Amino acid sequence: MLISTLSFSLMNFGVKYLSYLNSFQLIFFRSIGTFLICSTLIRYKKIPYFGNNKKILLARGILGFIAMSLFFLALKFLNLGTAVALRYIAPIYATLFALFILKEPVEKKQWVYFIVAYAGVLILQGFDSSMSTIGLILIMIGAMFSGLVFMIIRYIKQSENSLVIVNYFMGISVIISGVISFFYWIPPLKEHWVLLFALGILGFFGQFFMTKSLQMATAIYVSPMKYIEVIFSLILGVSFFKEVYTLESLIGLSLILIGLFANLFVKKRP
To answer: Which of 131, 161, 110, 142 is nearest to 267 (CA)?
Structure first.
């Protein structure tokens, strides 16, 4: 899981560093590398390429593309660590969607933890003068779409291979972002081409090692480690982008992480 969080942190750093480019160009390069690797592995392992639930997989891919687009756009307006922390609000939305759509119960403790996390968001918006309202709106809407994605994955995880699920997401992202990028292409600096292609490789490593860690160990032990991505992102943001975090923003970020972290340890009713 540590390799996964580091990979995602470096990928997000790359997206922030290359923010002078069109966001859809970044999505294209982030997606095409992972798509090619996933497609190769699916063929090598002789897994049915298009899966079993094609319509649901298409929906997952489209919703995932929207969520990623909003996150990449938000990175233009928000500090790296703040954007990553706010993106982790997605599991709250996933739980709420599962409550109303899949009829999964929500424990009373979870509501308390959700309120704590949202209090952190309110502190960031109300007391941190450096917080961009546009960035916050983008990231919160993106988190809602990510929540829908999580709910869909939970629904189909028993009937679909994880490589197929990721491949649909990346394939759809390549197609849509590629078409949009064609009309709004900004020439990258020649020294940035390596970093552009690295986005897809880092994204694949992050996804692969996260899945592998969840398969090798109990989720309750490895899942909390994914929040280390916020710490990595804070360090990268301060070190390379000279980002400044006020006391209020650190309190807000801490409340978000405390609420989400505590939620991981809630035992669900059967």
So the answer is: 110
Phi, psi (degrees; rounded to nearest 5) at 72: -65, -40
Is 268 part of any domain?
no
Q: Kindly state whether residue 143 falls inside one of the protein's structural domains.
A: yes
Number of folded domains in the chain? 1
Q: CA-CA distance, 29 to 131, in Å (whole number)?
A: 28
| Contact criterion met (CB below 8 Å) for 74 and 124 | no
Tokens 């990028």 correspond to: 181
Query: For 165-195, how does the pLDDT look when each residue is reduced to its tens digit (9 = 90+)?
Result: 989 999 999 999 999 999 999 999 999 999 9
Query: Containing domain of residue 129, as a range?
Result: 2-263
Report yes or no on 167 lying in a domain: yes
Residue 131 maps to a domain: yes
Residues 6+ away with beta carbon under 8 Å from 187: none
Q: Where are the alpha helices (DSSP H) in 75-107?
A: 80-87, 90-97
**Three-state secondary structure call for residue 258:** helix
Is the pTM here over 0.85, yes or no? yes
Distance between CA atoms of 154 and 140, rounded to whole angstroms?
A: 21
Contact, 140 vs 125, CB < 8 A?
A: no
